[in-house]
């Protein structure tokens, strides 16, 4: 894809990046803490998220990194993907650093540990990119807003892609909140599609050898009627798709299916031409001015397209800026009032914070994988955009 013309001089980008945790903080500054897993298994996701957050704030302020004359200062804190460290880091951000808003984290399990801290300090936490339904479900509180998609949005979109009459589906997911919430939502979303979820397999997040897991899945599916799918829900390193594909699931009539992912993980998709699924974002799919700017600027600055979590981080930055402008304040209660039901523009087009649970309602994209010899990864070609009004996302709190 050809990069477009930059909206602002490169100097703005450099200035924006210098604000991250290095600028002197003054009383009237807008203080944002990015509390996320900078180190650990999801480091690639974290880096994208932070790049996107800074680009979102830059875009929303026309490169000035100021709102209503107040400078934006972003403080970074590393959760190391550990819930206890995350809780302490968020408490430090709210208490000692006196930040107005926090953003993060990457891991759903870590996010669940952080939610009560936001409630205790009565400060906003913008959850991005953690996905588990329970974050805006049973564990939610009024100080939590989420810009990332949730498990139900993933599940409903993928159920559209795979929920064929008479199909038999097994799932493989990580054995923690992200995986289990994802399977539960997917199972619910399949109701009424004519497909049957016949087997669930869970594996530890650090699994390297998937032989036993795959064999149990093959045994469960091989005698089932209709088209047979193995739907994989996985995040981070050790992605099992290539390893299971090497075991020749086609011997049992089993097709691998999965949702979108970062570009590095989608290299495995080149082995699966024609595979269908649903994704949160792929840089060539949305057509709007914000995504045009993001793609052009990311190519110019990094020589690569923006990735899955870059778009998510940018969305969080845009939402924060829009909320502060709308509220005319960084006071928590003013921000909550402004954000309930708030519509805002993102690299994916329009999003809206649902008033009941503060989950961002948004489009998802049904795709089919195309193999292009000039592209390192399997290319998700758009089959259908699933808009906000096309999906009934349950309220679970």
From TrEMBL:
<feature type="domain" description="Leucine-binding protein">
    <location>
        <begin position="30"/>
        <end position="370"/>
    </location>
</feature>
<dbReference type="InterPro" id="IPR051010">
    <property type="entry name" value="BCAA_transport"/>
</dbReference>
<protein>
    <submittedName>
        <fullName>Amino acid/amide ABC transporter substrate-binding protein, HAAT family</fullName>
    </submittedName>
</protein>
<keyword id="KW-0732">Signal</keyword>
<dbReference type="InterPro" id="IPR028082">
    <property type="entry name" value="Peripla_BP_I"/>
</dbReference>
<keyword id="KW-0813">Transport</keyword>
<dbReference type="Pfam" id="PF13458">
    <property type="entry name" value="Peripla_BP_6"/>
</dbReference>
<comment type="similarity">
    <text>Belongs to the leucine-binding protein family.</text>
</comment>
<keyword id="KW-0029">Amino-acid transport</keyword>
<feature type="signal peptide">
    <location>
        <begin position="1"/>
        <end position="27"/>
    </location>
</feature>
<dbReference type="InterPro" id="IPR028081">
    <property type="entry name" value="Leu-bd"/>
</dbReference>
């Amino acid at each position: 894809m050809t990069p477009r013309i930059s909206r602002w001089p490169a100097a703005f980008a450099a200035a924006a990046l210098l604000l991250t945790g290095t600028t002197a903080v003054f009383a009237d500054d807008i203080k944002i803490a990015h509390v996320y897993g900078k180190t650990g298994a999801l480091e690639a996701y974290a880096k994208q998220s932070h790049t996107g957050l800074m680009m979102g704030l830059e875009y929303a302020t026309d490169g000035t990194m100021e709102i209503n004359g107040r400078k934006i200062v972003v403080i970074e804190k590393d959760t190391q993907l550990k819930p206890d460290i995350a809780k302490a880091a968020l408490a430090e951000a709210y208490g000692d650093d006196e930040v107005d808003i926090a953003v993060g984290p990457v891991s759903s399990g870590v996010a669940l540990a952080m939610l009560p801290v936001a409630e205790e300090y009565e400060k906003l936490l913008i959850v991005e990119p953690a996905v588990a339904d329970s974050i805006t479900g049973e564990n939610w509180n009024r100080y939590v807003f989420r810009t990332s998609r949730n498990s139900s949005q993933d599940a409903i979109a993928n159920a559209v892609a795979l929920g064929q009459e008479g199909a038999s589906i097994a799932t493989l997911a990580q054995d923690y909140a992200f995986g289990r919430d994802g399977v539960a939502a997917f199972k619910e979303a399949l109701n009424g599609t004519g497909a049957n979820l016949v087997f669930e397999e869970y594996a530890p997040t650090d699994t390297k050898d998937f032989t036993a897991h795959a064999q149990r899945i093959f045994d469960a599916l091989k005698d089932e009627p209709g088209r047979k799918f193995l739907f994989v829900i996985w995040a981070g390193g050790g992605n099992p798709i290539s390893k299971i594909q090497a075991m020749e699931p086609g011997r049992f009539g089993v097709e691998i299916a999965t949702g979108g992912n970062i570009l590095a993980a989608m290299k495995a998709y080149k082995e699966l031409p024609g595979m269908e699924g649903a994704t949160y974002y792929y840089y060539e799919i949305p057509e709007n001015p914000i995504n045009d700017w993001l793609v052009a600027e990311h190519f110019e600055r990094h020589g690569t397209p923006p990735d899955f979590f870059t778009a998510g981080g940018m969305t969080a930055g845009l939402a924060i800026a829009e909320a502060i402008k709308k509220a005319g304040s960084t006071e928590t209660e003013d921000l909550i009032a402004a954000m309930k039901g708030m519509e805002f523009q993102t690299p994916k087009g329009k999003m809206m914070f649902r008033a009941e649970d503060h989950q961002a309602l948004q489009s998802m994209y049904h795709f089919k994988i195309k193999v292009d010899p000039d592209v390192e990864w399997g290319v998700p070609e758009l089959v259908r955009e699933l808009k906000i009004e096309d999906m009934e996302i349950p309220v679970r709190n």
